[in-house]
Request: fold
Amino acid sequence: MDLPIQHYKENGAEEQLQQSLAMRTEWEPCLAHHPPLQSFGCDAELAERGGGGGPPPPPPPSKRRFRSPTSRNKPNDSAMCATMDDRHGKMRETLMERQVQKAGGLLGVTSRGLLILGLLLVFILILLVIIVVLAALWPRTKAQEAPKVCDTPACLRAAAQVIGSMENHTSPCTNFWNYACHSWLVSNPLPPWASKWSIREELAHRAHEEMRKLIETMPHPTRVDSLSWKLKYFYESCTALEHIVVPEQKLIRVIDQMGGWGVLRSFSVYSWNFRMVLRRLHAEYGVNAFFRVDVVAHPNFPDKSIVRISPDGLGLPDRNYYYREPDHATINTYKVFLKDAVQLLGATSLEATKFAEEVFHFEKRIAELTPNTEDIINPVKSIQILNVADLQRQSFSIPWLEILRAIYPTTVFDDSTELLITSPDYLKDISSVVSSSDRSTLNNYLMWRLAHNYLPYLSREFWEVLDIHKRDTLGAKESVDRWEMCIVTTQKYFRLAMGSIYSKNNVALKDSRNGVAIIYESLKNGLASSLSGSSLYSPSLRSRALEKLATLSVQVGYPEQVLASSYLDDFYTAMSVQVNDFLGNILYGVHFLRKVEERILLNPLPEHKWLAYLSKDTITYIPESNRIIIPEHLLLPPFYSVNFPQPILLGSLGVQLAVAMVASVSQHGVLYDGQGVLIDRESTIGNDSLSLTANQRKCLVDALHQKKIDDEDFLKRTVFETLVQLAGVRQALKVVTNPSMEQRRTEYKALEFLTHPQLFFVAYAQSMCSHTTAKHRDMERSTTFRLGDEEMLRATMLQMPEFTEAFMCNSSSLLHHGKVCGRII
Reply:
């Protein structure tokens, strides 16, 4: 049924009415044969508009301008029907557009927006399907599991130790030393009897206390001359001050036997025998006058030993002290010490003053001839092997054969015997000094060397004078306790015996060794990987370094065979001890050590190359045996505990181990092969090892000098040690950040605020926390090749982008890394 005309009029659609009438005229020829509208599947809305079953309503008017049927040619019926079919399709499209517009109206968007919204919904659906599939197929790993929290007693103790040493109010990017060490420095003040105090000194002091307790509580030995009897009575002869009665009289008798002493007015210039005195001082009293004689591993044959002769004979710690201003405090202190000591032995004040000036200036002459330590640090350049005849020709004033035969009486020496000479030029110059000096000067120097060596073992007033000199030189406020001085002295002669009783009392040593072995292997593997990919090493040098690293080993504490009772009893057979005769026991000890040296010379064993280093207070690399030595008394908290968190262990013990490893394959260590044999002087490896770090050394000195770490001269002196330290820290950090370790990531109770790299750097810094007096630091600067602890820490952090990244230091912070030039591996 047609819509009534009134409908159009009511809705103001006159034009639509006219269009509808005109279009009806066009439809009518086709209505008879056209199917109903419903057969086209039209929308129900059209059917409703047509009424109940009547004819459909007219289609919506065309948007084209209405034209009267009389104004155009009338088409035939078939064309008109085709036109109507086409318009039916357009009508359906129009109805669909209306539906879309109606839906868009409900959502408040246009049809185009609705299309975009639909596409977006389809994309989100596809994305959700992909996420679900990936989640189902993604491998389950430990990294997705919740972190394991370590709250064992060892972890809690380590956390308390770390936090108790820190100062959280300080920015690590501004002052990392203060951040890591402030609380430790406050709670561990410098003891009055020490000039330096750090974790290393603390562990050494605790080891001394433990040894004192073990010796003093040792059951009274029943067999005279047993090792335990010798050890106990040697120590007690030192501590029993009431029984030390004028031992200086014995020293004076020794002086008289050697022709007297000019300052004591017991010297005859005409009868005094220089050659005899020099021989006896070295052979019988262990006095290093002009030079030192000892036994070392042969540099060319790994299974042999050789006698070494090296510069020695100064009273001050280093030759550089003698070049200071004449009124320098150290020089004045030494002269006062010289004067007071000989006055106690019987010299007049006037003679003692004159003697002090004379001896100081004679020692200064020796200092001028003594080579710089920098000049002899390269073994290829400084070490020469000469036979006795050649040495005698070069230094004719020294009776070499007499001295050697007296020191090692059972060894055959002749003109063809080879000797290892550290500095032939020095011995040649010393010979000239001896030949050009008068007998009185030589007598005063040699007798002073004897007295200086034995002052600690005389009556109280003598070693008190010596302590005053040490305190004035190093800056300590008080003397070391007598018991500790006795422990150190006893350890000098009974090193293996004391190591034995200490090891047997250390029940955790086996676990400590296993823990160290794990850290050692991880560091060794990491260093091998770094060397393999290093572009700094030439192919030949890299091959040599990797071969050496493959044979590198570590020794933790004394080996079991050395601590066996049978080994120790045989070792100390030649050692004699008397009750309550401390000076006499010292003389027995000097004789015993010479016997030990001769045994090593005639029958060297592999352990002879490194046993002495097990009583030191540092981790040491021994190139002659290609072995790293770790004294077991260092394997204690706060430095080490087998169950401490891995980042802490790697920051403390790990760094020192890595530094020793790097030393084995870098500038001087690589000059020895895996068997401990030194390269030939003509080998190009020596030049390669020196050129390896040439650019890095210059760059690092410039960078650290710009940051005002230290003065340029000292930075040049210490630059190689700094390079090795940097390489060691990087190698240890490499293990901390190793992916295999990250997969086993563990959080540590109370240390959650520190990431693993941050905890590593804090542990590294805390292993270096120390108090040092200005005078002790002055001594270290003259005798060592290492920056001070605080300066070394700053230098390391400034060369490590890893530190900047770990603590997120901005570019303006004081410890933001600058130009990185300290990589040698």
Q: What stands out?
A: Confidence is low (pLDDT under 50) at residues 25-53, 62-75. The first strand starts at residue 148 and ends at 150. DSSP finds 36 helices and eleven strands in the chain. The radius of gyration is 46 Å.
